[in-house]
Amino acid sequence: MLRHLPNSITLVNLVSGSLAVVLLLYGRLDAALGLVLLAAVADFLDGLVARALHVSSPLGKELDSLADMVSFGLVPGIMLYGLLSAAWHDGAWPTGLDWRALPAFLIPAFAALRLAKFNIDTRQSETFIGLATPACTLFVLGLILLYQREPDWAQRWLLHPGGLYAIIVGLAALMVAEIPMFSFKFKAWRWAGNEIKIIFAALALILVAIRPLAAPSLVVLLYIGVSIGNHLLNRNRQV
């Protein structure tokens, strides 16, 4: 039974993402966001449990990618589809097909490419190459929170078709970019070797305290910036 536990947790991720898709289609944003967070917790726990029980397997790796494709590929695509459609219709969440919002589905397309690359890329055992799909989803989740909770601000600044198209292209490009990004795996609980992760965590907590609704998106932007800065610093040292 124990060897099946990690895969069972992965299926919680998949089912949560599937339910989030349905709720997003009906405009039930609060419940959908809760399910996305549940999927993220399950995505974190399945690998943790697999390592603790020493039951990692190729099946688990493939199953994890399939679940992530739904929860962190299709779901953010639908979220951005809704925001784009709302941008074209005075802030109203869509109730039908909107052709102008279809570019949002570049996100699941590039998420699939990223997940496929991840499964065959031996360089990504300790770090990521490109933006991980859960981070992309977290960024979009922050946009949804602002759309829900700060409608006046969203109407003025967020719901601009040009800006949303740019966000879609940027996220899609970052997922497949050859940019090293640090992971949150701690080999040991000490400062040495974990400096970037600890500094980032402290800055992220400050963002959460200062601007809680925008924090998911701001934290991802911080993560991208710190990763790129760390990469450039290490490259200069090697030169």
Structural overview:
With 239 residues, the chain is mostly helical. It has a single domain, classed as Four Helix Bundle (Hemerythrin (Met), subunit A) (Up-down Bundle). The protein has helices spanning 5-25, 29-53, 58-88, 106-120, 133-149, 151-158, 161-176, 195-210, 215-238; strands spanning 128-129, 180-181. It has a two-stranded antiparallel ribbon. The radius of gyration is 18 Å and the shape is globular. The model has no long low-confidence stretch (mean pLDDT 90).
Known CATH architecture? Up-down Bundle
Order of helices and strands: HHHHEHHHEHH
Task: Kindly give the count of domains.
Answer: 1
In CATH terms, what is the fold-level topology?
Four Helix Bundle (Hemerythrin (Met), subunit A)
Tell me the major beta sheet. Answer: 2 strands, antiparallel
Helix and strand content put the structural class at mainly alpha
**Proportion of residues in extended strands:** under 5%
* Count of runs of 4 or more consecutive helical residues: 9
Strand arrangement in the largest pleated sheet: 1-2
Poorly predicted runs are none
Which CATH class? Mainly Alpha
Shape by Cα distribution: globular
Radius of gyration: 18 Å
What is the number of E strands?
2
